[in-house]
Design brief:
The chain has one domain: Vaccinia Virus protein VP39 (Rossmann fold, 3-Layer(aba) Sandwich), CATH 3.40.50.150. The protein has a seven-stranded mixed β-sheet, with helices on both faces. The mean pLDDT is 94. The protein contains eight helices and seven strands. A hairpin with a 3-residue loop joins strand 6 and strand 7. 40% of the residues lie in helices and 21% in strands. The chain starts with 15 loop residues before the first helix and ends with a strand. With 216 residues, it is α/β, with parallel strands linked by helices. Bound molecules: S-adenosylmethionine. S-adenosylmethionine binds next to helix 3 and strand 2. S-adenosylmethionine (SAM) binds next to helix 3 and strand 2.
């Protein structure tokens, strides 16, 4: 039996010290290649003007940019502390990314501003995923592609334990559990998508997460 979803937060991680720990965690995920970038490319994600929703410290969009050489990379992030790290990391990558403070349920962008929208590990924190999906549709240009990856709550308990024990820094482990408890199952997300402008999206589960892809 899958446990009921437990909401985590809709404010993102705001505290600088917590963000510093998250940055170390995300950097480690990047170094191991566990950040969804290859799945995004395999799903048909290319360059153009890219928007990353909930970039956190920015590694996912920056790694994607390194591979697809977009025209531009913009992040919409709710946490000022995360933006601070993302800007620092973009400078390290020598990529001129722009990180904008905003909530994905009401993004500060004109209609049809982007060719591509990506997001990793953020969906389970959105207070209203249907509104966020509508926003992603609104800011995409016709023909634009999106790829949203996240954890999934119905992951095999053995895999859950293995990932928990390999999570470093160890201070991230409690957060991994609350994030997993807040994550959706593939069938829940399919139902939410059906009620949004992304109703033609495909949602699939893999060994630890879920991946939503489609084209406007
Ligand atoms: C778990 S982190 C993932 C960060 C990064 N995408 C990664 O894969 O390493 C989730 C990020 O989403 C951001 N976030 C949460 N809710 C958001 C919202 N409503 N709008 C924009 N960003 C949001 C958080 O502040 C945080 O930076």
């Amino acid at each position: 039996m899958i446990k009921t979803r437990v909401i985590e937060t809709n404010e993102g991680i705001q505290n600088e010290i917590t963000v510093e720990t998250f940055d170390l965690f995300a950097r480690r995920m990047r170094d191991k290649g566990f950040n969804g970038v290859n799945d995004m490319i395999a799903s048909g994600i290319r360059g153009g003007d890219i928007l990353e929703v909930g970039p956190g410290p920015g590694y996912v969009g920056l790694e994607l940019a390194k591979k697809v050489h977009p025209i531009s990379l913009t992040g919409c992030e709710i946490s000022p502390a995360m933006i601070h790290f993302a800007e620092k990391n973009a400078a390290e990558y020598r990529i001129s990314a722009r990180y904008v403070l905003g909530n994905c349920i009401a993004m500060p962008f004109e209609n049809e501003s982007f060719d591509t929208v990506i997001s990793n590990g953020s969906l389970h924190e959105w207070e209203n995923p249907i509104r966020a999906f509508d926003e992603i549709y609104r800011v995409l240009r016709p023909g634009g592609r999106y790829c949203i990856t996240d954890l999934r709550r119905d992951v095999n308990p053995l895999i859950r334990t293995m990932v928990y024990l390999s999570t470093r820094p160890t201070e991230m482990r409690p957060g991994l559990i609350t994030s997993l408890n807040a994550a959706y199952t593939v069938s829940e997300i399919t139902e939410l998508l059906r009620h949004s402008s992304l109703h033609q999206a495909t949602a699939i589960g893999d060994f630890f997460g879920l991946c939503i892809t489609g084209q406007k």
